[in-house]
Write a structure and sequence with these properties.
The complex is a heterodimer of chains A (82) and B (191).
Chain A: E1 5-6, E2 9-10, H1 11-22, H2 28-40, H3 42-59, H4 69-80
Chain B: H1 3-8, H2 11-19, H3 23-44, H4 48-64, H5 75-91, H6 104-110, H7 120-123, H8 127-135, H9 139-150, H10 155-162, H11 166-190
Helix pairs in contact in B: 2-3, 3-4, 3-5, 3-9, 4-5, 5-10, 6-11, 8-11, 9-11, 10-11
The chains are: A mainly alpha (82), B mainly alpha (191).
C-alpha cells in the first residue's frame, strides 16, 4: 500500500493506531484526525473493515461448547477427590 | 433450586461458601465457569490433554485458595489467572523464547494491508475458518484474543491476567489482531 498522506495523516499511522481507533481508546481530537483520513482513504477504510469483520467473526464464536462428556466426567471425579 | 435462582448467586458468595468447605457451592461455581475455562485452557495449552490437566489443576487450586479471593475483580478473571499461572508452571512457557516483535508494516502486509483484497466479510465461508485461524496462532496471540474478544474481558482485566501493563496489553492485542487477519487470509487462499 502506498503510505499516502491524507488529511495530515499517513496510512502507516492509521495502521499503528488502528486497534485504539476501533476500540475508542484514542482522544477525541486524534479520533477525528484519523477519521478524516479513513473517510478519504479507500485502502485504510477497507483494511479497517477487514479487521472489524475478523473480530466480529471471532466474537460470534461466543458461547463456549459444553465440555466433552469424558472431560466432564474426569473433572467431576477430580472434584470428588477434594 | 431452579436454574434462574442459581444464576443469581454471585461468584463471590459461592467462593466464600467454598472457603468454608461448602462443596455444593464450589460445584456450582465450577459448573458456571468450566466451559469457558476449558476453552481458554485449550488456547494456552499445547494439547487437549494438557488443557484438561490445566483446567483440573485450576479448579483444585481455586478450591484450596478460595479464601484468598477478595472480590476486588471478577472471580472469572481470578480463575483465568490461576489457569495461566498453572500452565506457565507446567511448561515453563517462554523460557528462552524471544518475544515476537515483528515489524508492524510487515504484519499489516501479511494481513492484506498492502493490497486490495476482496473484503474479508465477503469471503469467509464458515466459523471453522475462524477457529482454525485462531488455533494456528502462537499462544501469546491466542490467549489475548480469547480473553478480550471472546470472553469479553476489558484491556485492564486482561492485562492483570497476563501480567502486562496497559500499553503492553494494547500492543499485544493489536499485533494479535493483525496476525489473526493474516491467518484468515491464509485460510482463504487454502480454500
Amino acid at each position: 500500500m502506498p503510505d499516502s498522506l491524507i488529511a495530515g495523516v499517513r496510512c502507516s499511522e492509521v495502521l499503528a493506531e488502528l486497534s485504539d481507533f476501533l476500540d475508542g481508546q484514542l482522544e477525541m481530537a486524534r479520533t477525528e484526525t484519523l477519521q478524516a483520513h479513513v473517510i478519504k482513504c479507500d485502502a485504510c477504510e477497507r483494511f479497517g473493515a477487514d479487521v472489524r469483520a475478523a473480530l466480529d467473526l471471532l466474537r460470534e464464536t461466543g458461547t463456549p461448547e459444553p465440555l466433552p462428556d469424558d472431560v466432564s466426567k474426569r473433572l467431576a471425579e477430580c472434584l470428588r477427590a477434594l | 433450586m431452579p436454574a434462574t435462582e442459581q444464576q443469581e448467586q454471585p461468584d463471590l458468595a459461592l467462593l466464600v461458601a467454598s472457603s468454608s468447605g461448602d462443596k455444593a457451592a464450589f460445584e456450582e461455581f465450577v459448573d458456571r465457569h468450566k466451559s469457558a475455562l476449558f476453552r481458554f485452557a485449550r488456547a494456552i495449552s499445547p494439547s487437549l490433554t494438557d488443557a484438561e490437566e490445566a483446567m483440573q489443576q485450576t479448579f483444585v487450586s481455586a478450591w484450596q485458595h478460595a479464601s484468598t479471593f477478595r472480590g476486588e475483580g471478577h472471580a472469572r478473571g481470578w480463575l483465568f489467572q490461576i489457569a495461566r499461572n498453572a500452565q506457565n508452571k507446567m511448561h515453563r512457557r517462554r523460557a528462552g523464547e524471544p518475544p515476537q516483535h515483528d515489524d508492524l508494516t510487515d504484519l499489516g502486509n501479511q494481513a492484506g494491508w498492502d493490497c486490495g483484497l476482496t473484503p474479508l466479510a465477503d469471503v469467509i465461508e464458515n466459523r471453522e475458518w475462524v477457529q482454525h485461524a485462531l488455533s494456528s496462532l502462537l499462544v501469546d496471540d491466542q490467549e489475548i484474543l480469547v480473553l478480550i474478544e471472546v470472553e469479553g474481558f476489558s484491556l485492564l482485566e486482561a492485562g492483570d491476567i497476563l501480567g502486562l501493563s496497559l500499553p503492553a496489553t494494547k500492543s499485544r492485542l493489536h499485533r494479535a489482531r493483525l496476525r489473526l487477519l493474516a491467518a484468515l487470509r491464509k485460510e482463504e487462499h487454502h480454500a
